[in-house]
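LOG
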Amino acid sequence: MDVSMLKKIIFILSLTLSITTFAAQKECPVKPSYDIVINKDNIHIYNKSNDLSIMNDGQVILNKKIISLNPSLRKKLDQFQKGLRSQLPQLEQQSLSLLSEVKVAFDQAITKKLSDDRELHSELNKLYKRLVKLLHGSLISENGSTKFYYQNFNKLKKDGHDIGERIFYNVIGGSILEFNLFKNIAAIKDISKNEWKAQKPKLKAFDAHICSVITDVDQQYQQILTELSQSADK
């Protein structure tokens, strides 16, 4: 087998099994530029330019200054913080559920096509665990709080693709060393093609859902930030 063919196989595997690539779809036009920490007492949204805290008692602090709110702005802030408290934890759970569903689908395909190939199952499990860890570097709920890290979130797809590529390069490399590549190549390609086709609509829909949630959060935040800044200047 020549190098070009090997690269093609690696690409198919990494494209298929690296779940966070979500196909070759358009990137979401909205890229968050702030971290978010949600706990029982407040919501903290911050970056180098702005530091916003929305307290449960209704107090709002922007860049260390308490802001007086008119009724309209207070209502927007109340809706915004309630939305964040539900949307971000739900997004994490939905992502974890999707990762698990796709992993199970590939596990079943490997068992069916390769007579329960232990090595491939093991590498798929490694990929799943690393993708969960990658997700939790961007969005995680623990100990009563939810944290969103924008820099990790904005490069989630690329990092997920890179992880998948490294892991499945190892699978192919091991197959070459064990002289099993020619025996397994047709089955691996079949799994890649068929499972990708089966999972693609689900992944595409979820990608759009993520973009919708992040766009909604960002639009509300930017509007609120503008109005808070105007109130602070009065």
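LOG (cont.) second protein
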Amino acid sequence: MAGSVFTSALEGMKHVKSENGEMLTKHFLDVCKQLLPVLDKFGAALSPVKSDVANNISRLETKYSSNPSEFNLLYSLVRPEIEAKTAKSSSSCTNALLWLTRGMDYLVELFRNLHDNPDWPLSKACTEAYNKTLKKWHNWIASSGFSVGIKLAPERKKFMEIIGETADLTSDIQKFCTNFSPLLEENHKFLDSVGMDNLKA
């Protein structure tokens, strides 16, 4: 049994928190990485989202790898930048965590739409998720690019066949949305506490 495209991410989520309930850098990034192949299944429709997510994971991983013990906890990547007042720089880890979290918000919302609205075409699920999550942070150019990309979304039935070699797909989607949302919420709370959650593109 191969499991669904979410199997690895769901397994990974069990290890994201330390014994003290703190978010662990490597495990959080690993879960996000497990979702890149899911983004691939959308074809060209979500390639901007995929490249953004992949770049942000890569920036955070590079920093983590420079000192795994110092940066073991996810927010330890951000705190030095807040203190040094470099957090708002477009190349900061803070910025990467913010946009990675937003990209993941979008994915959760998209799959929630697919789960809750079986009659929606994929393009509608993508657009509604975008309007609810990323749109308010994007400038006109990014929004237009997104609208154009969505027209390339595959047909829903075909897409669901590609991602679902298993009967458990529906319950996996629900578990993914239910289990991943609180982790993203925690990131937003932390970013809000350091004045970074409302940063626009």
